[in-house]
TrEMBL record, chain A:
Native source species: Hominifimenecus microfluidus
Family note: Belongs to the ABC transporter superfamily.
Domain ABC transporter span(s) in chain numbering: 12-256
Domain of life of the native organism: Bacteria
Keyword tags: ATP-binding, Nucleotide-binding, Transport
InterPro entries on file: AAA+_ATPase, ABC_transp_ATP-bind, ABC_transporter-like_ATP-bd, Oligopep_ABC_C, P-loop_NTPase
Upper lineage: Bacteria, Bacillati, Bacillota, Clostridia, Lachnospirales
One of the GO BP terms on file: peptide transport
Molecular-function annotations in GO: ATP binding; ATP hydrolysis activity
Gene3D superfamilies for this protein: P-loop containing nucleotide triphosphate hydrolases (3.40.50.300)
SMART domains to which the protein is assigned, alphabetical: AAA
Name of this chain's protein: ABC transporter ATP-binding protein
TrEMBL record, chain B:
UniProt membrane topology term: Peripheral membrane protein
Superkingdom to which the source organism belongs: Bacteria
Keyword Nucleotide-binding: yes
Family statement: Belongs to the ABC transporter superfamily.
Keywords noted in UniProt: ATP-binding, Cell membrane, Membrane, Nucleotide-binding, Transport
Organism annotation: Hominifimenecus microfluidus
GO-annotated biological processes: peptide transport
Name the record gives this protein: ABC transporter ATP-binding protein
GO molecular function: ATP binding; ATP hydrolysis activity
InterPro entries according to UniProt: AAA+_ATPase (IPR003593), ABC_Ni/Peptide_Import (IPR050388), ABC_transporter-like_ATP-bd (IPR003439), ABC_transporter-like_CS (IPR017871), Oligopep_ABC_C (IPR013563), P-loop_NTPase (IPR027417)
Amino acid sequence: MSEQKTQGKELLIAKGLKQYFPIGKDRFVRAVDGVDFSIREGEVMGLVGESGSGKSTIAYTVMGMYRQTDGEIIFNGTSITKNTKGRSKEFRRDAQIVFQDPGSSLNPYQDVRQILSLPLKVHNVVPKSDIDDKIREILQMVELPPDFMYKSPNSIGGGERQLVSIARALCSNPKFIILDEPTSSLDVSIQAKILNMLMKLQEEQKLTYMFITHDMGVMRNVSTKIAIMYLGKICEIAPTKTFYEKPLHPYTQMLLSAIPVISAEEEALKPKKIKCEGEIPSPVNLPSGCSFHTRCPFRQEICTKEDPVMQEVEPGHFVRCHLCQKK
Amino acid sequence: MAEKILNIEDLSIWYRTYRGYSQVVDHIHLHVDKGEKIGLVGESGCGKTTTMKTVMGVLGKDLIHIPNGTIDFRGKNVLTMKQSDLLELRRSGVSMISQSPMSALNPVFTIGQQLMDILKYSGKYNPRDKEALKNAAHEALTSVMLSDPDRIMASYPHQLSGGMRQRVCIASALITPKDLLIADEPCTALDVTIQDQIHHLLRELVEEKKRSLIMITHSLGVARELVDRIYIMYGGNIVESCRTEDLFTSPSHPYTQGLLSCVPRLSGGGLSAGIYGYVPDYVNPPKGCRFCPRCPYAKKICETEKPPMTEIAPDHTVACFRFGGEEQEKGGEA
């Protein structure tokens, strides 16, 4: 969609981000295990991976729902992880999140007006008397009729519910929105509508997105750059076009070759069929060396012993694999 | 041609609700030949699962009302079967893989016990011969590519991962010889790489043992990979049925076209606008074509009359007035 829009300054930088969850004595679930990435202003970074790879944990850690085990997050030039009392109010205004399941992230006892007015009050976006007008304006932004204000989340459909949670995220005029699988619980016809809406808003409001999904087809059409996660680590980051045309990491190739597609044209784009073997290992007992070696068809001696480091193979294209580094 | 193993004729299924009858399935025709793999594709709430559950005879008479239609399975009408015949049907005729492997297995019994129970009541084994039952269960688990079947037999469902559980469900569906396997979105809860494995497995097992398969799915991509023939369902009607390759080269019903254009492509090219509107209310469904309120080509006649299934090419039928009666196709950008 917008391939060349990567000129802005870096809005969010994560350096060596780690998030461990203790389970018993000296045992941890290593949900996120040393992740580096940066998102520039106006970019849509896609975060893909299987369930249990730590995508959502990254989102929650950035938002401050967990206290990170290690590493640093820099937002808009200032480190936000130094503050031990959670995130500052400015950050909470500038960064918002849309959750996967709108059914459980909207309070069923409140109507849409109450849901949307809370962020407006907290962040003093408009004077109290103008709140209703502002709500109508925001509902219009997501193309919902103004009388939606008085409906409860239970009485509306799944797609509309997700629109309400997008509206809620927009209330505080954010710069950055994390979209945590916003369409995976919806049907394709509604999904297309919501994705269009999100992309339109991104353009109009000059938003930056971190878009989490497991649908590679969606990712191709919305993101400007893609990071792929496996077992708490990012194994490949590349601009969208490169990512689909020249995937380097064996896991990326495996994932891309497994997608069911609907036209011969797409079939041709998929990398050569790599037989999928095994399942994602437990993040408690990580495999030695490269965490993907248990499923990798190209594994070699070194992969079982040494963990590869992230390396830039061409501008903007980072891969974490022993095999790609030799070149 | 080949013998029809399942033949659904003019079937309607209504749910009883407080607001009146909810007409979830409306006059559908569907058939499955022996050894054939068919796909039933549609969005959530279009009646796919309801139809298949009725085939299994698992929806009680207090829940549903069937005003018309027949379901012939191997020449017998499932709808008028006695309870004992229904049990026989489920024992040796049809099996179903459910959508969520998490809830399909009983959490308080081990996998081994559950598999052996199926064998015990299948009538194919001597229930006292524990050794034979165990061996058969063992073999079934091996056939679905589960390594270490002994450990799995001894474990409870919560000790297994989602992919393993779904494999166990497939194993239990295929453990006794059955003619028809219904897979109800077996992979929606799983990751693509696991999904790929399960699909391979399903295809191999079905082809190898000459079973028939009905694949219920909302993903056209999955249907394209797996099945021979596709039925597209919308709002309780089957709107288009054809061979898989025809559907992707010449989709004809406006809904099919819309659905195809909605799928985000790997090759890029932006997003489509989606299909305008929402699925119909089943208690008061539109009088004519149920897709009419959302259809870009809707005409006067669509509002009042139901379009008949018209054959537009061999094995390709469409329920749309654009193809029925006088040919008056209005040019559109397909």
